[in-house]
Every structure is written in C-alpha cells, then in structure tokens.
Amino acid sequence: MNDYLIVASAIFCIGALGVLTRKNLIIIFMSLELMFNAANLGFVAVSDYLHLINGDIFVIFVMVVAAAEAAVALGIAIAFFREKGTIDIDKANELKY
Amino acid sequence: MEILFYVFSFIAIFSALMVVTMRNPLTSALYLILCFFAIAGFYIILNMQFLAVMQILVYAGAIMVLVVLVIMLLNLSDIKSFKSNLHQVFIGILISVIMFAEIFFYISKGIQKKPVGIFTHALIKKIGNTQIIGEFLFTKYIFPFEIASILLFVAIIGAYLFAKKKF
Amino acid sequence: MDYKVLITWLIPLLPLSGWLLWGLFGKYFKGYSGYFASLFVAASFILSVILFIIVSYSHGFTSTLYPWIHAANFKVGISAVIDRLSVVMLVMVTGVSTIVHVYSIGYMKGDKGFSRYFSFLNLFVFSMIMLVISNNLLLLYVFWEAVGFCSYILIGFWYEKKSASDAGKKAFIVNRVGDVGFAIGIFLLFATTGTLNYEAVFKMIPMIPVFTTTVIALLLFVGAIGKSAQLPLHIWLPDAMEGPTPVSALIHAATMVTAGIYMIARFHIIFSYSPVASEVVLTIGTLSAFFAAFIALTQFDIKRIIAYSTISQLGYMFMAVGIGSYTAGIFHLISHAIFKGLLFLTAGSVMHALAGELDLRKMGGLYSKMKVTAITFIVGALALSGIPPFSGFFSKDAILADTYNKGFYFAWVIGELAAFMTAFYIFRLIFLAFFGKSNLDSKVHAHESSKMMTIPLIIMASLAVIVGFLGVPPFNTSIFYNFLHVDFKNAYNFSPFVENAPWYLLSLVSVLAGLSGIFAAYLLYIRKVVMPEWLKSAFKPIYALSYNKLYVDEIYDFLIIKPLFVLFNFLWKIVDVSVIDGAVNGVASSFAFFSVKVKKIQNGMLMSYILTLSIGVAALLFYYFIR
Q1: Confidence check on the interface: ipTM exceeds 0.95, yes or no
Q2: Residues 115-134 (B) with a CB less than 8 A from some CB of A
C-alpha cells in the first residue's frame, strides 16, 4: 500500500506544482483534477489495505464533486475570458482591499 | 502484478509531469487523459473495476471532453504562451518538493494500523465490487447520495449563470 | 384534563391571548378591541368565580402545566397553587380588572393608542394572575417583574409627554432597588433550603435558624417595600399618576401595589417564624400609614392625594401582616381595592369632565354638574374614612382592633391618628372639588361622563357598601375570617390574641376618629370657621414639611443623585475622555498604521494567495511530521 500512497503523493505534488507555477486557467484546472485523482487513489489504496468499502464510496462522491466543480469552473473560465479577453490568472487581481 | 504497478506508476507520473509542463493546453489535456487511464489501471489492480470504469467514464469521458471543448471554444492555441516568471516557478518547485518530501517520510515511517474491515479481496471477488458499492450507496449512504444529486443540480444552474451572456 | 385544571389555566391564558391579539392585530379591530378585551377579562372573572366556588366547597390543589426547568434535583414548573388565598385574590384581580376594562372603553375613547392600551392592560392582568397563582418563587419573581414592566409601560403610556415617560422610568428604577433585595432574598432562600417550591420551602422553615429566616424575610420585605410603595421607596407611586387614570385605579391602587401584601401573606410562615422581621414590617407599615396621610393633607393634585392615600392604606395592610393578622390584611386589601379603585375611577371621571384638570384650586361646585360622579366619590370617601356601614370601616377596624388586642398600643395610636387625617384629607378634597363656589376655568364645560363610565362607578360603589359585611366585627368570627383563616393556620403564633378591650369600644374610637376628621374638614372648608390660610401661616414648618412631601425627593436628590452626578461627571470627563477614549483612539491609530504595512500582502493576485495557502499546507504537514 505504501507504494500506492507514494505514487499518489507524487501525482498530488505534481498537481500542486502545476497550480502554483502555471498561469493558464485551463491548465490550473487540469492540475486540480490531477490532485483530486491523487487523493482518490489514496482513498482506494487505504480502503483496500484496511479491508473497508468506505473509501471506495467516498471516491464516488469525490467524482460527483469533481464533475460539479468542472461544470462551474469552466463556466467561470468562459465568463472570465469574456470579461478580460484572456485566461491569464494574473489578470485576476481584483480580490483585494 | 508488480510489473503492471510499475508500468502504471511510470505512465501516471510521467503524464502528470507533462500536464503541468506542456505549453499547449490541448497537449496537456491529452496527457491528462493518459494519466486518468493509468489511475484507472491502479483501480483494476486494487480490485475496484467499477471505480475504474467510472474513472474513465466520468473523468476521461465527461470532464475532459468538457475541457477540450472549452479550449477549442476559447481558441486558446492562438494565444501566446503564458510565460511564468522564474521567481514563481522556483518557489512553486520548492514548495512541491518540500511537500512531497514530508509526505514521503511520513509514509515511509510505516503505517501500524491492522486491517479492520471484513471486505477482503476474496470477499470482494466473490460478491462483486459493483454489488457491494451499490448496496452501500443505496442503504447506508443514501442521504449523502441524495445531497450529491442536489449538488449536481446546483452546479448545473451555477454553470448556466456563469456562462450566460450577462450577469 | 381535569376540569378544575382546565379552568385554572384558562384564567391566565384568556388575557394572554388577548394581549397577543390586540398587540399584533390591534389595527384590524379598531375601536372594538376594548370590547373584546373586556369580554376576555370578564370570562376570566367568571371562571375565577367558578374556581372560587369549587375551592370553597372542596379543598385547594396544585397543578403543573409544564415543567419549566428540570435539572437533577432542581425542579421548577409552570405550576399553580389554588387555595383559598389565591382564589380570593383571583376573584378580586379579575373582578376589578373587568370593571376597569369596561370603564377604560369610555375613558380612552378616541385615543390613538386604543388597541395598544388594551393589549398592555391584558398583559398586566395575565401577569398579575400568574403572580397570584404561581407556586414557586422563581415563577413569582418572573411575574413580579412582569407586573413591574407592565406598570412601567402603562405609566409611560403617553410617551410623548416628557413627565409621563420620566415617571415610568422613575417607577421602574425605584422598583429595581426593591427587586434586588427580593432577588437576593430568593437566592438566600434557595441556598438555605435547596428548593423554590412553596410547600417544600414552608416545610423547611421551622428547621432553619431564626437569624437566617429573619434575613430572608427582611430581604423579601425589601421587594415588598418597593412594589407596594412603602416609606423609603414610596416616591414612585405619586409620580405614577402620570399614566391614564384607569391604570392608576387598576395597577396603582387595586392590584400590583398589593402584591407586596399578598407576598407576605403567602410567605406568612417565613415571616411568622421571625418576630423581628414582622416587627420591621409593622414599623414600616405604621410609619407609611401616618406619614403618607400627613403628606396628603396639603396636596392640591387630586390624583396625588389619592395616591398618598393608597400608600397610607397599604401601610395599614402591612401593619396587619406585621402583627400576624394575615386575614385582616387581606380583607383590607380586598375592600381597599374596591373603594380605592372607585376613588380613582371617579377622579378620572372628574378629569375627563374638566379636560384633564387635576388642580383642586381650579375646581369647586362640581356636585350640581356631575351628580353620579360626586355621589360615588363620596361613597368611596366614606369607605376610606372608615364610616359604617361602608367597607373601609370593617376592614380598617379589623386591623386596628387586632393591633390593640395583640398589644401594639403605640401602633394603634398612630393608626387612629392616621385614620383621622385620612378622613380629613379626603373630605377636604370633596369639599374643595364638589362643593363651595366654582373656580372653574371659564372655557371648561363640566359635564357628566358617559354611561360607559358611570355604570362601572355605580357597580364599584355598591360593592364598596356590600363587601364590608363579610367582615362584621368582631372580626375573628366573621364570614371572611372563617373562610380564609384555614390557609394561615400553620403560621407561628408569635403575638397571641388577648381581648384587651371589647370590639365595640375600639370600633367607636375608629368611627369617632373618622367623623372628627370629616367634621374638621367641614369646619375649615365649608363653614370657614378658621381660614385655611391662617392655619398655614400658624403652622408654617409643619405645613411646609407636608406640602413638600417630607422632602424625601430632595433628600434622595442630595444623598444619591447629586453624588452620582459628581461621580459620573468625573467618570465622563476624566476616565472616559482620557483613558477610555485614549485607549480606543490609540488602538485605532495603531491599527491604521499596521494595516498600511499589512495591506501589501493583499495584492489581489490569485496566484500569491494560492502560494500562501500551499506554504501553509506544507507547514501543517511539517507539524504532523515532527509530532
């Protein structure tokens, strides 16, 4: 199980790296999906190790949330593009004061 | 099995790296699909075929199609690549590496907990993972399940509102 | 549900629902809310009478509507104790309330707060009923405060008038002083006995030391002093006359101010086991009876005279409960509620006729213009002066005779003197207002009030004649005594009854005191044998003392209010401005200084936020790692 967790954490950190370094909103979104999947993999591995089913059920809920999140996030991306003419995250700089 | 695990891990990590480094979002999206397939492979190794199918259907099938659609809709390939500044990239790498190191050491200390559940590989194989998940989802977890449906509904409305021409 | 229980809880719930109805939907009822409110209270009255009959043919009971607080051994319920004492009080409270409600329809006609007035009045009736029937100290305290609150909102009913809202505040604040004592008394009682239920408390009382009982009794009595306007805390009651007159009749004569007497009668076991506390009650009562009557001698405000008279009469009741004659105290409470309510209502009728005029010097000769009012007023005055066969004679005589027979001769002498002054001041009022030559303002057209107001007056006046016969002397063989004494049989008999003098002799002295008071007023104000002005200059210091209400307000002003002003001025000018304001301003400016620095973190860039967030995550992971 440890191997699975290490792979999962590696994918998670790569996703975090993408979120932190990239400026394209779509790529940030995809990196987030990566992080979700890493977490899912962790859930399934642990639940397999402990002979439980709860982790697997939780993965289904995470998928539901991811789907919902995808719909909303892409909607935001479109709205953002319409507003600014770009999807450069650095242009999202009004969340202050 | 061992071989399969290493193959899948290699594909997953490599394609994940590609996702975050590729300049063209479309390439990234294709690598992401590859990554999702690798993770689905893990699920199959872990005896969760149902989850693997779901992974491919929902992620690779639905979400990624949506992403690619948006990429095409926004016609992003034309836009000049977003240049990340070095300063930011450096901090990002630093934090990611530190995080990974921490998790790695934490995992390699070993997990002492013994198995607590009854769902051994043999039992799952005997009953079938789809049936087990279904039984749990519609009895013990029926309330979160219904809540999830409401969440999806709200997401539909939210997406519609965001993508509308005018707020 | 048992029908007795149903009746018990319907009595308070009817006025409560009335309060909600007129309070929330008053404007839809328009002028009819008064009629409906009267109907609700009248229904309560009828139920009270039924309950009275039930209880007098069987025995009392307790019933719990709802367990309010339930924590381990501490149990407090919304529960009622129905015994002879509480049914007598219930009938009195609901009866007087009904009459006052009906009277108010005429009195308040056309007022823009018509529905508001009736909703408050119904709330008051509800609170008073609950105060009477509650069977534990906590519930009693809640409704003790509730009636105080109702009194406050009703005194300040015409809140646009500065004097009215000030009077309301004064009543509330002075009552607070008493209620603090009351609350501490309840705490002490709870700490000593560990329960708040009447029955349980009374069972414990003989077992606890006399000193503790005395302290508890005195603290409870402080509450009674405040609520019943006895001597040191009486100053709110005369000012409370700023409220509508029916309110004065109901709250400040008949019901709320008598709550103190009811409370002592209810806790007679506590008070009778502490002779010292009882003597304090007697002393305060006697002093109030005397000095309030003394002040009333020279006042010119018709309602204030009656208010001081109320304080004086409440003093008599405290005398009664102070010597252990609880039945006589309650009897005077009932008869006083009727004749004092009557006096207030007639005074309201006079006010109504004279467009709000209250000054005696601007009245005179009203008898010919408003006969019903004048006659009913004279009936009330005769009752107050203790002239047979009016109710005041029987009840006051019962108290004074008991005082004499139980050996409190000094209190008896002062009581008789006060009776003389009572007769004098009330007939001074009558002679100045209803007889003699008219000093009316020429613009004012005096007229008799409407039927809606005179009929209640007539009912009250006839009651003032009838009720007295329940207590035909000698008092301890009368109907009323036999009915109510059952409830007080457990009291510790600290001052045995010895027949020192036959009852008719004592009655004769009382009647003579009353008659001579009336005669003195007659000589002074009708025959004018001696000009009042001459008396005024001859006894200047005494006159001034009485006219200025013993300077109590001034003494309070000097002793309490002035020092407080000095203290608060100091707090305001020095402490508030330099210390507190300085601290606040300092904090504000230092925040302003730092915020300029910290503002840079909030640069609005999403990426930097995410960066900070992940640094936090890494740090948290590190914490788990090293743990």
Answers
A1: no
A2: 115-121, 129, 132-133
